[in-house]
Design brief:
Blueprint: H1 3-8, E1 10-14, H2 22-29, E2 35-42, E3 49-57, H3 60-70, E4 74-75, E5 78-79, E6 81-84, E7 99-103, H4 111-118, E8 124-131, E9 138-146, H5 149-159, E10 172-175, H6 179-191, H7 194-203, H8 209-218
Antiparallel strand pairs: 1-3, 1-6, 2-3, 4-5, 7-9, 7-10, 8-9
InterPro entries: Hud_Sxl_RNA, Nucleotide-bd_a/b_plait_sf, RBD_domain_sf, RRM_dom, SLIRP/GR-RBP-like
Keywords: Repeat, RNA-binding
GO molecular function: mRNA binding
């Protein structure tokens, strides 16, 4: 089964009324096919609904039918938004996992403040703000690892586009590379002719911010945290 097909099984459901439960979400989507799980995301401390959830089907065709039928569906005083849980901007070769990559952080963003931002979405098992080893200043890149895939999905959707400061660019949140993808990317990189690499650095052609982002992921060493 391909990564894209797997992502199509899981639907992100936004603008749920605050009183909708896991069971009611299940009943709402069950007419479209067999459901593996349904989850309304809640704020850990208060137990209040965050207004969105996830529904995972066993078949992608059922998920597609549910998305078509339930997107823009009126539930109470809300209009639902239903879409695949994997964001369209996510690189197709990056596999969904529990580790999230976050940028651009504020220069003074700490691991504690990053924990405060992400903790409403689930149990954080590790968190890291990347620091330049020579200057000891923040690289404005962070990683947050959750205990479950559902929690990571919820955080990705909930924090993407959030502004840490009105004058600061919105946050980009995506799945971090797995070790398998890292090795594949590095192998492809080594195959490139030397003159092509030189030209890329000299003229800027073929280089983009993603190159530096991925190198940051490669060097990341996460420390466990009992958040």
């Amino acid at each position: 089964m391909s990564g894209n097909q797997t992502d199509r099984l899981n639907l992100f459901v936004k603008y749920l009324p605050n009183d909708v439960t896991d069971e009611e979400l299940y009943e709402l989507f069950s007419p479209f096919g067999e459901i593996v799980s349904s989850k309304v995301m809640i704020e850990n401390k208060s137990g209040d609904s965050l207004g969105y959830g996830f529904v995972r089907f066993t078949k992608s065709d059922d998920a597609d039918r549910a998305m078509t039928a339930m997107n823009n569906y009126r539930l109470g005083n809300k209009i639902l938004m239903v879409k695949p849980s994997n964001p369209p901007r996510q690189a197709p070769e990056v596999i969904r996992n529990t580790n999230l990559y976050v940028k651009p952080l504020l220069p003074n963003t700490t691991e504690q403040s990053l924990t405060t931002l992400f903790s409403p979405y689930g149990k954080i098992v590790a968190i890291k703000v990347m620091v330049d080893r020579q200057t000891n200043s923040s690289r404005q890149i962070g990683f947050v690892r959750f205990s479950t895939q559902e929690e990571a999905d919820a955080a990705l959707h909930g924090v993407s586009g959030h502004k840490l400061d009105p004058s600061h660019p919105p946050l980009t949140v995506r799945y971090a590379e797995t070790e398998e993808i890292k090795q594949r990317r590095m192998a492809e990189k080594e195959k490139k002719p030397l003159n092509h690499q030189f030209n890329a650095y000299k003229t800027g052609q073929g280089m983009n911010d993603e190159v530096f982002d991925q190198d940051g992921e490669q060097g990341m060493e996460m420390q466990g945290q009992g958040a």
